[in-house]
Amino acid sequence: MANKMNAVPSNWKTIVDAETISRSISRMSYEILEKDRRLNNLAIVGIRTGGEYLAERIRRKIKEIEGVEPQLGVIDITLYRDDLSNSDLQPTLKGTDLPFSISGARIVLVDDVLYTGRTIRAALDAIIDFGRPACVELAVLIDRGHRELPIRPDYVGKNLPTSKGQFLRLKLSEQGFPDGVYSIE
Amino acid sequence: MSKLLIKNGLVIDPAASLEEPRDVLLNGALIEAVERPGAIPESAATEVLNASGMWITPGFIDLHVHLREPGFEWKETIESGSRAAALGGFTTVCCMPNTKPVNHNAEITRFILEQGRRAGACRVLPIGSVSVGLKGEEMSPLSELWAAGCVAFSDDGEPVWDSGLMRRALEWAKMLGARISCHEEDKKLSCGGCMNESALSYRMGLNGMPKVAEDVMVARDIELARATSSKVHICHLSSARSVELVRRAKHDGIDVSAEVTPHHLLLTEETVGDYDTNAKMSPPLREQEDVEALRAGIKDGTIDAIASDHAPHEQDSKLVEFSKASFGILGLQTNLPLTLELVRNGTISRMRAIELWTRGPAKAFGLERGTLRCGAPADLSIINPDYHWTLSKELIASKSFNTPFMGRALSGIAETVIVEGQVVVKAHKLSR
Amino acid sequence: MRRHLIGIEGLTKEDIYSYLNNAATFVEVSERELKKVPPLRGKTIVNLFLEPSTRTRVSFEIAGKRLSADTINVGASDSSITKGETLLDTARTLQAMAPDIIVMRHKESGAPHFLAKHLEKTSIVNAGDGMHEHPTQALLDLLTLKHHFKERSAGIEDLTVAIVGDIRHSRVARSNIWAHLALNNRINLVGPPTLIPEEFRHPRLFGEKINIIHDLKTGLRGADVVICLRMQLERQTDKFVPSLEEYSQEYCVNERALQAANPGCVVLHPGPANRGLEVSSAVLDGAQSLMQKQVNFGVAVRMAVLFALATGKTVSEGKSE
Fold first, then answer.
1. I need a surface site. Which of A27, B108, C109, C255 has the fewest CB within 10 A?
2. Does position A169 have pLDDT exceeding 90, yes or no?
3. Of C24, C39, C312, Cβ closest to residue A79
4. Could you tell me where in chain C the CATH 3.40.50.1370 domains are found?
């Protein structure tokens, strides 16, 4: 790996290790394929920033299994958030890149941690601004509960009961940290 | 006849070069005696005033105020303005003729004098206009104005641009023994300007009034005074070069006198800051080098007087875009403490400070005042130099509040002010 | 908390990049079929344009609408200003309608400061005040350059920028100078002495890093960017130039003059241009001109500015002094 690996800060506690993450990605990829083996209209769309590299890994896995690479996209949901006026920091826009036609596509939205469901709501709005997909499915590495909207995932890496105040983050080697889901204190 | 004995004070009378503890006895409207402490028995007086810790000075004279009456009574009246003057330690103020109608005939002059007497706070002496309606076209009836009681002539605010007219007016005024007081500004050079022309004005995107607009007119009027052997007074000097021009003219023996305002001695253009319209006046606040030159001018005698250019404006004319705001700020109630700042920072002695408000202006306009000599009019200011106060709206006697000094911590106040023997200010409050 | 964009003066390089980086997303939004995003839903923006302007007003209006804000245009003729109402009263009246942002164009320098000082709850965006600043113009010029120079390793830094024309009266020039100073670029101000006061090099203004050059070819030598300014014809009564013919003889940016600049040099003009006076048609319509792109990027930059003021809590305001 070309990236320089950073040391894990002492206030990060590993909740899910690299091995489990790898197995989860693998399993979710199979499940995505099992549901519909046609790959011509499949697009994996990561939600910035947590789902971005995860989406890429899922795509790579699917290619490994099927030898065909599905479309890959990334969306920034900042413009669709419902809490823009009371965020403490100036929002930074990182951009949306969907280099394929949304209309008629089977979209698998990818995020690291599913929590209140608000991010997914925003992501759905963002996607629909680009066209009318055939369907949208949701893949998350961790489902930690505490939903505030009627949203459920189609593919789950791991169900992880958490308390409300807890702060969870997936970090992958692409971001310069050893693969892991960390609880940050 | 009532006789007031003022005891235990420090007399500062620049006209008599006196700066010593003295007791002063007033006899009605005149000064009867100035003697060593204790030399005048209390029995000689009908009333005794203890001025311990105070300075006893001749009443202050302001050569340059705008009292706005007649015509702009919502900004100031002769009554409100002269009350503000008295509170500031002034016993005489000379008011500029840019009223409506302009003070360009005897009727207006007499009206102003009468309103001043009626207000009874301090002596109000009118300045007549040089040209009819301040238009710079025809000469005002200078003799008529002089006879009615004007003490000088000026087209303040609308400088006489016609050099020919200025020359004739100087010649006529010379015959009367009068002085012409000149607002020095070439309006073609300062065209549309609203602050000092400088890096700051360019940064703020405001049209500037260059210093040279003042300098060329000072030079012109000095040369006209030289050519006609007449008397000119240069209003509110603001540029270093103009100070130098006056210095050289005096050296050459030209009869030129000059004044400067406290704000030009203390503030720079930086005060305009965030487009603060209370820092907008004409001439504008300049730069530090000009402040230094003006301070040198009051120190070495180039500048004869400090004058306030008291220019009240209602809030509405200042609560607008900077370039649209009226020019001018209040001065009468802040003149004394601001001047004392210059004493405290070592620029001038207290004797010189008092001279710039008494003997200096009196001499410039040929007024028989500004001294505590026996037999002189009993115009006195008794100053508490160590009284600390903060300028606030409630303390302002003017009808307007346009001053960049609002909220400033000040030291020094006129404790008692006596005009022709009458106590008009007592314990720094108007006594009537 | 109050947040305004009054000027580029006082903004750091980081502040500038944060606007430009967010603007990139809005460029993308502007290229979508559905050119609308929801972040300013329910926000009200008043475009208070008290000086005539078409492109800036339309640009702000489109920007507001693409962010889903409700935009209301108030011009000089339909405001009560023409009936003698003061700016303060106009502002207070608007304030009572609780706009989140007032975008203001005014012919007097400092008018947006005045508004900002007197309105407590509204963000002010300066859309050009007198001869003072026009911050969004400078930002859109930078965005245009950033896009053009995206392959260049130093991006929009380490550039030589020549600003040509009536600098004295130009708010566009002032905002661009502050911006390029923040980016540490070399700046040549080019024009006659009557239109470029020496004070521009004063330490209390732009300082000695700025070059003032009176000869056009010398001024364009080595330039990567040439910003042509509009000759303000309405000011010519003040005798700043002997005649427009003589001015254009000396200072019209034409193909011949541009040969002195770097080969890859690009030309910007804030518009509207006086063709043949400050810039030749051949240059304006030529390959080096980015004028049309400037208009396109204008909307994206204004979206970034409105977005920044309506969201989040920490935005540098830009200084006025």
1. C255
2. no
3. C39
4. 13-134+297-310, 136-294
